């Protein structure tokens, strides 16, 4: 049977739909969990949900709905304990997690159900998902996605800075509990896909992948949903392909491994991007204090603009770094583009942060490493003169050092 024929089988089609929806919904909730620095919250809720699954097996009702009830209750307890912030909070959470897992195994034994039945929920069994389970998964996934996207401004405010959100008039406790409930629902809908013990990975790893590349929350949210979708579908396809070779690979672990592989592939690019951003913008722009509107704008003469205008033309192409022999020998050197950018603000008559930048530029890895070969200015396609900026910064740093030595009491 070919791979295409395999996906024409009804149970594989149901598995594909479930993977598609869970791959989008779980990272959407995980974005807020990671933003709140609670990446392991999914693991804790997963342990608690085991008891809910066991109760469903014991009472011969739907394990999905009993897991929903118990997971939501556990999530609310976790949030309340976390909010209290006392020293014993971690101990209480640990007891809740371990008690949930132990209680699930114990109740399963009371129900006379074999361990293999419970393993379907612990490690996932997406290939055995029924039509009823799929409908529940679809309904809950759509609700999760709509809430995560529709309430993203409020949920982000609460996740990023609860104090600011409270000052802004948002009901912080309500939204905090809402995030916990959303996490509980995402754990339940993902338990048949990757299992309760691996569900946290599907919530966290796609977010970690996208955070290597993005800088805004909105792009992180959308990108995490895309990465989770790719990992879920890719892991299912990988498991199906390996099954054709005679291997008995479960889709749940393969989905998590595909997501982890994506992270390790993207991580070097993320490290390079962070390094590049640090090189081109290590110095803050310090504008003067605000003045009343009726006093007008901060005006400059043409001569004052001409002092720094050429240094503002940099497009961050990094050709000056490629041409710099000093940076080639010592990557700790701040480099021409960053120093030119700092000098651009130093020469701006509206700026008041020149002394702060000169202190940084005068460090051993700053302007004094430059040997004034001048290749950086030759390589610049926009006519910026980084070599000239470095020499100007050297002179300004030397003057500042002399002034500080002769007039240590002076202030500006």
In words, what does this structure look like?
With 412 residues, the protein is mainly α. The chain folds into two domains: 3-280, ABC transporter involved in vitamin B12 uptake, BtuC, CATH 1.10.3470.10; 297-406, Fumarate Reductase Iron-sulfur Protein, Chain B, domain 2 (Orthogonal Bundle). The chain is 70% helix and 0% strand. The protein has helices spanning 3-6, 10-35, 41-59, 63-84, 89-111, 115-122, 131-150, 152-160, 162-167, 172-190, 199-211, 217-243, 251-280, 302-308, 319-323, 325-329, 336-346, 354-361, 375-379, 386-406. Helix 17 packs antiparallel against helix 18. The longest helix is centred in the middle third of the chain and has 30 residues, at 251-280. It starts with a helix and ends in a 6-residue tail after the last helix. The model has no long low-confidence stretch (mean pLDDT 80).
